[in-house]
Amino acid sequence: MKQPCILVVEDDRQIRTFLQFVLEKENYICLQAGLGKSALEILSKESPDVILLDLGLPDVDGMILIQKIREDSDIPILVISARDQDEEKAAALDLGADDYLTKPFSATELLARIRTAIRHSHPRQNHSPAFKVGNLELNTDLHKVFLNENEIHLTPLEFKLLETFFLNPGKVLTAQMIIQNVYGIQYAQDTRALRTLMAGLRRKIEPDPGHPIYILTEIGIGYRLVDGELNE
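Above: the chain sequence. Below: its structure as C-alpha cells.
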C-alpha cells in the first residue's frame, strides 16, 4: 500500500516545517507550496490524497484557489486558516472545501481530519447500499433506517436529510448545501425549515436530542455526521 501524499499550501515557513514534521512522523509524504501558483504547478504533475490549504496566501486568495482546484479536481481540501468567522468558513465549504480547521489547532485533530478525508477519497470497491455509524444504519435499497437493529420510521424528507449526511460522513455541510439537496435550490435560504426538520430527525435517532452524538451542529455553519469518533 502506497504512502498517502499530502500537499501543504502555506506561506508561513515555520508552519510548513511543523506540518511536515507532524505528517512525516505519521508516514505521510509531504509536498509543500508557499504560493498558490506553486500549488497549481504541483497539482499539474502530482495527485496528492489531501490538500491542506491556508486561505491567506500572498499571491492569490485561498477562496479563488479552491475554485481553481475544483475546476478539474476532486482531491479533498482541508482548509487551515486563521480566519475564524463563520461566514468565511461557510463560503470556503460552499466553494468546494471539504473541511475547515481554525488556527491554532492540535496535531491530533489535524491528523484525525486527514484520516477522514483519505477514507472518503478512497472508498471501498464493493459498494454497499447500507451505511452505518454506531448503532444507526441507513439502507438505501430498502429505504429503511435502523437504530439498535430496530427499524424506525422517518418521513421522506427526514430520510433524504439523513441520507445526505451518510453520503458525506465526517464532512461539514453548510445549511445552504443541505437545504438545496433536501428541498431544492429555490429554498436555499430557508434555514428555519431545516432547523425544524433536523429537530424532528434528532428526536428519532438521538439517545438524547439535546446532546446529539450522531449529527453534530457546527455553530454558524451547518452540521456534520460523526465518522469513526462516536462515543455513545
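The chain has a mean pLDDT of 88.
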